[in-house]
Write a structure and sequence with these properties.
Layout lengths: L3 H36 L8 E3 L20 E3 L3 E2 L8 E6 L3 E13 L3 H13 L5 E3 H6 L12 E14 L5 E15 L2 E15 L5 H26 L2
Helix pairs in contact: 2-4
């Protein structure tokens, strides 16, 4: 038979043991929870967006700008490329040159056709007024009063990719076809057509390097087209 003192001591021991078990169970639960959280996949990285940079930060002096006839720049079209896609594309020329691959975590801020058109408009606009096709069409009524419709420049973008010649060496490759026509009431007269191919070395073998190289290629091709148009539009 247990005395009251003995029963009190036994109850105290049981309470201490129960408390220890509860704390151990709680600690074990926390460890399991932390382990489970650490095993969860981390949130996916968001794609990085690229464009061609800020563009012109100042205009040339007025006396350095030639006054050339206006030109109508049609919307740039893509041949074999999606006109709405903003994916940054690359090719492994040393492995499978026929396959265009998109970078998973890289995007253009706009489809490349729009970025190329912006680069062309900025460059052409340094020496002449640049109109949209719709603006040029609106001037058609002026031909009855002796006015002349501006020449129309059409661009087909054929290739715009980060081209790897080896795992460490790559370039930004831009290829397009430019067509210059003179619209008349009787139809269009071809003034010239030319394929432009520009490659710029990529500073790094990744999306960041590829987009920098492609932006540089777009700026160079805009300058070359500007000079070509100046020779064809008098």
């Amino acid at each position: 038979m247990h005395t009251p003192f003995a029963r009190s001591a036994m109850n105290a021991i049981e309470n201490i043991a129960a408390s220890a078990c509860y704390k151990s169970a709680a600690a074990a639960f926390c460890l399991v929870l932390l382990a489970g959280c650490s095993a969860l996949p981390s949130p996916p990285n968001r794609p990085v967006s690229y464009d061609f940079g800020p563009g012109l930060t100042s205009l040339p002096a007025a006396d350095r700008r030639a006054s050339l006839p206006p030109i109508a720049l049609a919307d740039v079209e893509a041949t074999g490329l999606s006109e709405s896609s903003t994916a940054v594309l690359y090719r492994l020329n040393y492995a499978d040159a026929q396959q265009l691959r998109p970078y998973t975590l890289a995007r253009w801020t706009q489809p490349p056709v729009q970025l190329v058109q912006q680069a062309l408009r900025a460059q052409l606009g340094l020496r002449r007024p640049v109109l949209q096709d719709a603006d040029a069409a609106a001037q058609a009524r002026d031909t009855a009063r002796g006015g002349k419709l501006p020449a129309v420049l059409r661009i087909e973008l054929e290739e715009f990719s980060h081209l790897f010649t080896s795992p460490a060496e790559s370039t930004g490759l831009l290829r397009l076809r430019a067509t210059l026509v003179d619209p008349t009431p009787a139809g269009e007269t071809l003034l010239g057509q030319r394929v432009f191919i520009v490659q710029k070395p990529a500073p790094t073998p990744d999306a960041a390097g590829g987009t920098r190289a492609l932006a540089a290629a777009a700026r160079q091709v805009a300058v070359e087209i500007d000079e070509w148009v100046a020779q064809g539009v008098k």
